[in-house]
Each structure stands twice: as C-alpha cells, then as structure tokens.
Amino acid sequence: MDLESLRGKKGFICDMDGVLYHGDRLLPGVNQFVDWLKTKGKKFLFLTNSSERSPRELKEKLDRLGIQVDASHFYTSALATASFLASQRPNGSAYVIGEAGLINALYDAGFSMNEVNPDYVVVGETHSYSYEKIAKAVNLVRAGARLIGTNPDLTDSMGKDVVPATGSLISPIELATGKKAYFLGKPNPLMMRHARKMLECSREETAIVGDRMETDIISGIHSGMDTVLVLSGVTSREDLKNYAYQPRYILSGVGEIAG
C-alpha cells in the first residue's frame, strides 16, 4: 500500500464520527493526524452527514476532546442543503423539521421560514418530532412544496444507543404523499463537490477518509477522489466482501496517515 502517494495529497475530506471520535471519546492517533495536517500545510475539512450542529458547535466539541481547529474546517449536510436550495431558488422559503444547525444554515443562505406555502419542506435530524409536524409537512408537500432531506441515513448513534436519523424521520411524509425526497448529504456527490470547492483542490489532489462504505467510500468513488476506509468505526475488514466496490486504502485509523 503506497501511503506516500496518499500523504502527498493536497486536500483531505474527513468524516467525523467513527473517524475522529466515538461519542465523547477521541479515537487513537487523531491528535497526531490533526497535527500532521497543520504541520504539512494540508487543506482539510471535517465533514458530517448530521444537520443538527453548526460548525461552531462542532468546533466546540473537538475543543472539549482536546483538538483545536477553526470552525471554517467543518462542513455539514445542513450547509450542503442550504447551498443547493439557494442555487435552485434564491431567497426561497421552507418549512423545516430540524434543529438549529439546519435552520440557521437556511437563514444564512437567504431563506425564510414559511408554514403556509413554502417552496420546500426540509427534514433533518431532530429531537422535536411530532405527529403535528408530520401532518403539516404532508399537506404542504401535497400542495406543491418539494420534499428535501439533509441526508438519507436511517439511523445514527447516540452513545451506546441507536436513534432514528433523517431517512427514517422523512419516510412517513414520503409514504403519505407518494413523493420521494431528494437527499443532499452523502452519498450524494454534490456534497463532495461543494466540499472540494471549499478546499480549492482538484479531484486528483483530494482524498476522502471515512468509516462507512455506503456513504463515505461510495461518495469518494462517485466524485473521482481517492478513498480511505478506516476500521475505527462502522465497517470491519470482514464487511468488505459484501460490497462490489472497494476503497483505495484500508487503515486501522487516521493516525497511520501521519506515519
């Protein structure tokens, strides 16, 4: 495995949960990896499919784990969703089922909140899910609003517990309306393209590092970037036989990139 070629990349797009940390526990080798990124002058983004937290909140989480990076190094599915919708319908409006990270991203992109006749119904992770919100969303979509999901993930982890994620939360709206949601997070290559533009790196100069074959690795393949699977998260080496596609690199954790 030619790690020197990987270490020569100009830009790195890294997933967070399962790559940098598990819950509130920093994974081995992450300090060395982040120090290496800074020392070598690499361009890097820490990317998450979650839409709950803002870049500032994600920065604060890493601060608590002992990793100091600027908020500009974080990119979320909420930001990808807001960027896409602003390009489709500048100064549009949305009815949102989601948390502050998503709502603020839409506000910052010029969107207004609208419960009467929005251009879009946008769903992300949320702790305030209710029958009333689902019913409102169903009727707005039936009236013509487009249905958008921040990511297609069915589940997420919260400590030792598994909780429903956006793909599960949006499915009742899809079933009740007969409309399929358009998802902006991984594995949609649009999110990778947005991230790469932020880094100002070409496909050949960029690598994506993740722990999930069906989101991180397939996103990198669809986007034409080298892929790095780390075995510190969801996917095990044994799981690889279940996939028709394979990562370019397989490492135990990100610390191996730093050497």
Query: Per the principal axes of the C-alpha atoms, what is the gross shape?
Result: globular
List SSEs in N-to-C order: HEEEHEHEHEHEEHEEEHEHEHEEH
Structural class: alpha/beta
The number of domains is 2
Low-confidence stretches: none
Beta-strand level of the residues, as a percent range? 15-25%
Which radius of gyration do the C-alpha atoms yield?
A: 18 Å
Query: What helical percentage do the residues reach?
Result: 25-40%
Mind summarizing the main beta sheet?
A: 6 strands, parallel
* CATH T-level topology of the largest domain: Rossmann fold
Instruction: Count the beta strands.
Output: 15
User: Which class of the largest domain in CATH terms?
Assistant: Alpha Beta
Strand order, largest beta sheet:
5-4-1-13-14-15
What does this structure look like?
This protein has 259 residues and is α/β, with parallel strands linked by helices. It has 10 helices and 15 strands. The chain has 2 domains: 3-49 and 186-258, HAD superfamily/HAD-like (Rossmann fold); 89-183, Rossmann fold. Helices cover 37% and strands 22% of the residues. Strand 2 (21-22) and strand 3 (25-26) form a beta hairpin. The longest helix has 12 residues, at 77-88. It starts with a helix and ends with a helix. The model has no long low-confidence stretch (mean pLDDT 95).
Structure summarized in a few sentences:
With 259 residues, the chain is an alpha/beta fold.
